[in-house]
Amino acid sequence: MSEALLRVSGLAARAGEKQILHDIDLTVNRGEIHVLMGPNGAGKTTLGQVIMGSPSFTVDAGSIELDGADITSMEVDKRSRAGLFMSFQAPVEVPGVPINSFLRAIVAQHDNLNLKGKKFKQRIAHIAEQLDMPESVFTRELNVGFSGGERKKIEMMQLLLLQPKLAILDETDSGLDVDALNVVSRAIAVYREECDGTILIVTHNTRILEHLPVDRTHVMVKGTIVAEDDASLIAKIDAEGFEQFGYVADEEPAQEEPAMRDQEVGQFDVSAALASAEEAVRAAEEGE
Amino acid sequence: MAERQRSQVADVDRSLYDFTKSEEGSERLDAGLTPEIVREISERKDEPEWMLEHRLKSLEIYHQLDVPDWGPSIEGLDMDNIVTYVKPPTEQKSDWESVPDDIKDTFERLGIPQAERAYLAGVGAQYDSELVYHNIQESVADLGVVYSGIEEAMKEPKWEAIIREHFMHLITPDDHKFAALHGAVWSGGSFVYVPAGVKMDFPLQSYFRLNAKGAGQFEHTLIIVEDDADLHFIEGCSAPKYNVANLHAGAVELFVGKRAKLRYSTIENWSKNMYNLNTKRAIVDEDATIEWVSGSFGSHVGYLYPMSILKGARSNCDFTGITFSGATQNLDTGCKVVLNAPYTSAHIDSKGISKGGGTQTFRSSVVVTDKAEYSNVAVACASLMLDDISRSDTIPAMDVRAKHVNVGHEASIGRIGDDMLFYLMSRGVSEQEASTMIVNGFADPVSKELPLEYAVEMNNLIKLEMEGAIG
Q: Is the pLDDT of residue B16 over 70?
């Protein structure tokens, strides 16, 4: 069970002139759940984006291997076809492209899925039921005018549809949204159940992890992995924050993840969100 | 997109438009523009004296007017080399089987007769300077609807009188140089008359094909929709590619009666050696509506601004257009509206795409006269540039002289965002397919307005244009 599915070695990356990632080593074994944590602006989202191949960043050193193959300079679409998936925290709106056409187009790129014609429709209907999505959503334009929860559902739907070998879930601010948290928990449960999925979840909200059997925890501060341990590290971060890793809040420029402003937090009922997420996770576990 | 049922017009590939037929048997007049040429065209058509006078007068005006200096260059167009009249080797038929094989094959490859059988109330097909086919469903003809060649209609005194009353009254020869040219050498085109109260369930379609090298096509479309009537008219155009300039200077005059509705849809896919200097104009009476749906894909240079004159109170104009300008193309498109009565409204929604060094300009003119109190105007134009070497411009003009008028204008110019490409590609879609998807999505508001077959054709044209778009 300790076969490496993702191996990031000595990875350094920058956006323009600005160095963001420094000498990152991170290995995720098949079937495991890993968590990447860190304060705002630590570079967590960037690491996910660089692994996926975002054109916004340049890799200066190191390598990324997926299932034994070097994907460091592979095109983005080929990484997807090789079994890599990343959910976006804020997926872009694509006007005029109906979701059902889009889903059909992406399924056609993944030969292994064998979802033609009727099978495709059945599969979509099945996932929609799992994620509690109304059919009407599929004729809407991709992400256009969607709420946070709706966007999350579309992201998770694609995860379940494509059944990747490795899913990087960027959930840096999902903790704020009742629906989003709920959907992610449910999708993770299904993904693991249906295809024994491997997950790297990016977050700084420890609550989302409470009911997940986390295998490894990685902590990133200022673009460097500063600590790595089993799930016990989560509780430690919960209790003592990131300061124990040398993080000084004031020094960190919030450069990539939207800052949690008080008024935004105030708009959500956080305790209700957590309760419903916990409920979903419990339901999923009972189903197993 | 992928969801759509494909039909015969759908399977577009380059060869579909880009094939040529021999001109054997065609009669070609000499190139250039002289009163002798104009007289000869008139004589061949055996037309009334007033028409010959109109032609000669137009020719004089043509020589007096200057070439427009405010748009794309038309220097490559040398009128001394353009053949104004090419008669295909056949008379007009209403029986498809008797159309000559070469011409029949052309239109069959373009899907015209199949489309007629499938969903049209009538079809006209023009090949070079003359109509080769015109047919209307019996049930529609029984309602008193006339759909025929304009020259053919002129042979009947009743229609001749009506044509004389309308022909080039909306677009007069002194409007601009190419309107004058059209007045002098026009040939072919359609005459449509929809009597009062008749609502057509299926569209009429005219298809224009220019096969002859170095020639011009100058068809005239005259449509009269009487009070309370309803018509959808579709116009398609294509031509094979030659290495010499071809010219299209047609004219479209539309008369929309009280409470009537006319939708005029065009998919223009002239070859990229074409100078498309077309003029279209509608006059709209009380409570009536003109809807323009316009897709411009072809031509080397295009000047195209369908104009609507809202003459009657509470009349409307809706314009939905898309222009796709690729390498070697400079397409200047948009629309004009004159609101000249109270409670009128105009909605303009335009999309422009440029790629491969192409230039695309949206140009609009909206005039609200002092009579047009309580009117509404909304202009929206969006442009998408697919690379750094292409160009998009927006030139909207408004002249508002009435009180209590709502005027809105929004314009945006953008590029295909890296973030959008990254998102789509991260789900396994190639860069080219992702770009095509984004462009098709951008064009979606227009394809929604087209009949399904044309929407599919438009998406295929976009796909064709996008091939090789990504270095």
A: no
Q: Which helix (H) or strand (E) covers residue B153, if one does?
A: helix B150-154
Measured CA to CA in angstroms, residue B283 lies from A190, B102, B189, B258, B280 at distances of 62, 39, 19, 11, 11
Distance of CA A272 to CAs A179, A283, B22, Å? Answer: 10, 16, 77
**A92 → closest Cβ in B1, B423, B444:** B423
Give the confidence band of B470 by pLDDT, cuts at 50, 70, 90.
very low
Instruction: Tell me whether B97 touches chain A (CB under 8 Å).
Output: no
Final residue belonging to a domain, choices B415, B438, B453: B415
Residues of A within 8 A of B420 (CB-CB) are 92, 94
- What would the mean pLDDT of B235-251 be, rounded to a whole number? 82
Contact B431 A77 (CB under 8 A): yes
Kindly determine whether residue A141 and residue B425, on different chains, have CB atoms separated by under 8 Å: no
User: Inter-chain contact B428–A94, Cβ cutoff 8 Å?
Assistant: no
Domain with B347 in it: 17-415
The reply to whether residue A86 touches residue B426, judged by beta carbons under 8 angstroms, is yes
Q: Is B469 in the same domain as B326? A: no
Per-residue confidence (pLDDT) for residue A250, from 0 to 100 = 60
**For the segment B185-222, what is each residue's pLDDT rounded down to a tens digit?**
999 999 999 999 999 988 998 888 887 888 888 999 99
3-state DSSP assignment of residue A212: coil
Each residue's pLDDT tens digit, A169-220: 998 766 556 667 778 888 999 999 998 899 999 987 777 777 788 999 999 9
Can you list the positions of beta strands (E) in B246-315? 246-248, 251-256, 261-269, 274-277, 279-284, 289-296, 301-304, 307-310
Backbone torsions φ then ψ of B455, nearest 5 degrees: -60, -40
Q: Residue B401 has which token pair?
A: 């002289």
Q: B98-112, B299-313, B318-332, B362-376: which has the minimum mean pLDDT?
A: B98-112
* Complex prediction ipTM: 0.86
Q: Are residues B364 and B436 in the same domain?
A: no
Residue pair A192/A159 in contact (Cβ under 8 Å)? The answer is no
Does B155 reside within a domain?
A: yes
Question: Any CB–CB contact under 8 A between B437 and chain A?
Answer: yes
Per-residue confidence (pLDDT) for residue A51, from 0 to 100 = 98
With contacts defined as CB-CB under 8 Å, which chain B residues touch A97?
1, 437-438, 440-441, 444
Q: Which two tokens stand for residue B60?
A: 């004089």
Q: Based on the domain organization, do B222 and B288 belong to the same domain? A: yes
Which B residues, 392 through 421, put their C-beta within 8 Å of a C-beta on chain A?
417-421
Does the domain formed by A4-287 have CATH 3.40.640.10? Answer: no
**Residues on chain A touching B427 (C-beta within 8 angstroms):** 80, 85, 106, 109, 158, 162
Q: Which is more confident, B393 or B15?
A: B393
Whether residues B428 and A55 touch (CB distance < 8 A) is answered with no
Lowest mean pLDDT of B58-62, B81-85, B311-315, name the range. Answer: B81-85
Instruction: Flag whether B152 is in a domain.
Output: yes
Kindly list the distances between the CA atom of residue B44 and the CA atoms of A279, B29, B39, B40, in Å, as whole numbers in the listed order. Answer: 86, 11, 9, 6
A144 to chain B, any CB pair closer than 8 A? The answer is no
B169: its two tokens: 């009254």
* Overall residue count recorded for chain A in this entry: 288
B237 & B339 share domain: yes
Closest B-chain CA to A140: B441
Is B422 in Cβ contact with A55 (below 8 Å)?
A: yes
What percent of chain B is modeled with pLDDT above 90? 58
**Within a domain: B8:** no
Could you report the per-residue pLDDT of A214-237, keeping only the tens digit for each?
A: 999 999 999 999 999 999 998 888
